[in-house]
Amino acid sequence: MEILKSFADALRMAFAMFWEILWALILGFSLSAVVQAVVSKSEMSRLLPNDSAKTLGLAAALGAASSSCSYAAVALARSLFRKGANFTAAMIFQLASTNLVVELGILIIVLMGWQFAMAEFLGAPIMVMILVLLLRAFLTDRKVEDAKEQADKGIRGSMEGHAGMDMAATEGPLMKRILSPRGRTAISHYFVMDWVAIWKDIAGGLLLAGALAAWVPQNFWKTFFLSLHPAVAKFWGPIAGALVAIASFVCSVGNVPLAAVLWNGGISFGGVIAFIFADLIIIPILDIYRKYYGWKMMWFILGTFYAAMSGAALAIEFLFQAAGWIPRQRNARIVEAGVTLNYTTILNTIFLVVAALLLLRFVRTGGPAMLRRMK
User: What is the pTM of this model?
Assistant: First the structure.
């Protein structure tokens, strides 16, 4: 009975977090779908020919306009690289696509507060700059050639159908494109495809966060994150946060609920940011890098990404400490008493209607058949 009760507690907490963030997820994916519906993927490779500051800035902007699914981002980055995009630009694209997307910011604000969202969006450009410096210092032409040879073998990874999907309406003024039949269909398809791509990560993240919140005592987290030694914890947090992310197997926006649990447990502010940054170096994605680019490039990506993510998180830790923006209380919203008539329930009801309308258009415009073709 005790075991059943502990499982029930974990599921209750997972559902409570899901109910708290549902409207934010629907809003975020809806906005993302609108952006994807008017940004064509077919032109991306042509726009990323080198690693100049202008090109890398454009790569970050294009990444921010794409899907937040980590697997789709990695697949699309390889596709861009195979079609002629610069390797560094492709890496910056995939970093931005999981760290600068609107749905991530909305979710972080709902669960953790504006300080964490601001840290995410200020820290991401710092991470990009560190990564660019590392790649320029250590990425050789030989490494790129070997990676290109492996990439051209076309070994399949994950979510490649979603990454290759391009339904953007690109003719006419922006609002006309969005409101046109083609635009509305594209929005509905991107909305559903994003959910298909990422629901396992969201569910996994919520279940893992619920289990950790229910089962792991606070003293364990305080000991692991060295909470009793604040000066050391500032440096250990970004290192530990990225390590926990690698081992968690949870990526994309699915890692935000777990980040909230870690924050309440005692990880440093920079550690939380490093954990969120590190969704592109979890073990399943490292295996995809191995398939896409080979063993040597996989280890190279792991080393450079880890250094950039931890370094940027540490910089944010000291920047926000100097500005006085680090929250004093550890009260991220990981548990709600239940479903009650409050603003969360009202917003969830409204956005569930929006989701239902988008799903209906998806079904009526051949969406299920497309899903079957994309396997």
Answer: 0.84
